[in-house]
């Protein structure tokens, strides 16, 4: 596993990604490529098209060429690494694969994307069956779509596109927004503990369906407390904090407090230590406070949070 996998998966379906086209999906549908979670498999499970796979699988190619799938990133951004996972594809995996990327604003059609000038970010590389393959990407450009090429055919279970979110915040000029939203470019940069689940889950869109879709720490036995630091979408003034403990019935924190900073050195209080209830969305107004770039959310003493929302407005800078 590589360090870049700690960054959000920009292509994930639950973050808005979509496999908008594929030249072939005879055996297994293209949409599986960006599903959350590990691929599943049940042997000797046959449908009308053969063994059922949790992945994308094309027919056996009898002519020159290769197969491909086109993915719109749910969160446009700078790609730091690609994972091509061929889990459970053992006799029908592609021996080689490559990945290309392109940036196209607005809502392009498949035909417009096919005609675009694509950049190769993962060169044609050898891959194996039933294995994860990690490819670092050294490219500082912002991309909106990727194309997975497999040579010549076969099956891929998952495609992960890890990177840093780079939204167009000009859309919010003069408007309020969630400064802590992953889709707006916020990111957890430090965390005391992530034993059960990733802290970046609290910045994800939508509501958490269960505990695993939030952030949960191990039980503390040292008298301290757990915390995380969020780099906001941009310098801004926070007016409302939402602290959601939904699904956390017996492991919600007893209390929460929030601090902010604009220079990374001087921290000041935004929300004093405040009692929380289990399985409850909480909303707290934030009094007059200057613009901040980062916040620290302390939970007392430990437990989990489903979501954190910090509503406000970007500063003029």
List the helices and strands and how they pair.
Layout: E1 18-22, E2 46-47, E3 50-51, E4 56-57, E5 67-85, E6 96-102, H1 110-114, E7 119-126, E8 132-136, E9 142-151, E10 155-156, E11 158-165, E12 177-178, E13 187-191, E14 215-216, E15 226-244, E16 255-261, E17 267-275, E18 281-285, E19 292-300, E20 304-305, E21 307-314
Antiparallel strand pairs: 1-5, 2-3, 4-10, 5-8, 5-9, 5-11, 6-7, 6-9, 12-21, 13-15, 14-20, 15-18, 15-19, 15-21, 16-17, 16-19
Describe this structure in words.
- The protein is mainly β and 317 residues long.
- The chain has 2 domains: 3-165, Sandwich (Jelly Rolls), CATH 2.60.120.260; 169-314, Jelly Rolls.
- It is built from 1 helix and 21 strands.
- Strands 12, 13, 15, 16, 17, 18, 19 and 21 form an 8-stranded antiparallel sheet that branches.
- The mean pLDDT is 95.
